[in-house]
Write a structure and sequence with these properties.
Number of helices: 10
Number of domains: 1
Strand order of the largest sheet: 1-3-2-4-6-5
Number of strands: 6
Radius of gyration: 21 Å
CATH superfamily: Uracil-DNA glycosylase-like domain
Largest sheet: 6 strands, mixed
């Protein structure tokens, strides 16, 4: 059947008969392929940031206020990765701001680090409406941008911040209790990846801050080793 359909299309084309197709669908499909491929041809974070700012691959571009690319030291040894921007991040165009950002700053300070020492990004560069969880298709379309950030920064370690980020990065459904305290390898570069709580979760569950501090001590040790 497949060979017959292919031959039929070839015959119709040879006869000069135009084959109808959904041009909008074909155009969108091509655009997605081109944007994901072109992400691999960008040679600086500024170039990737401009690409992200113009991105319309998924429906999130229709509801965003700003894209949230990432901030920090472009040669950082530690790259912190959350799942997606929230309301404050969407307004400011910067990841981990507001109360959660202040707590992250304090956690970094506890191991003698500053935001200027690290790089912070999210898997998604646009805020999902009402802070819902990222959809798998959105993650699939946005991941090439994150991968390019990793390629350009070349961090020594990655830190998945929060359960959702950890599950997407590690392609798992394991709980935080099982993910924390272990060292994983991410991507073809096999970069060590650690998992810790999201600061927003710690604001809701302050009793878990002690566990988060132990995670940060592991991060500190990984940077020293």
């Amino acid at each position: 059947m497949g060979m017959y359909m292919k031959s039929k299309k070839q015959y119709l084309k040879a006869m000069g008969v135009e084959i109808w197709q959904d041009k909008d669908k074909a155009k969108k499909s091509k655009a997605k392929t081109l944007d994901n491929d072109n992400a691999q041809d960008l040679h600086s974070l500024d170039e990737v940031k401009k690409k992200v700012a113009a991105c319309t691959l998924c429906a999130l571009h229709k509801t965003r206020t700003n894209t949230v690319f990432g901030v920090g030291n472009e040669k950082a040894q530690a790259l912190f990765i959350g799942e997606a921007p929230g309301a404050n991040e969407d307004l400011k165009g910067e990841p981990f701001v507001g109360r959660a950002g202040m707590l992250l700053n304090a956690m970094l300070k506890s191991i003698r680090l500053d935001r200027t020492d690290i790089y912070i990004a999210n898997i998604l560069k646009c805020r999902p409406p009402n802070n819902r969880d990222p959809l798998p298709e959105e993650v699939k379309l946005c991941t090439p941008y994150l991968q390019k950030q990793i390629d350009l920064i070349q961090p020594k370690i990655l830190i998945a911040v929060g359960r959702i980020a950890a599950q997407f990065l590690l392609n798992t459904t394991e709980s935080m209790s099982k993910l924390r305290g272990n060292t994983y390898q991410y991507g073809p570069q096999k970069i060590p990846l650690l998992v810790t709580y999201h600061p927003a979760y710690l604001l809701r569950s302050p009793s878990e801050k002690r566990k988060a501090y132990s995670d940060f001590l592991i991060i500190k040790k990984a940077l020293v080793d």
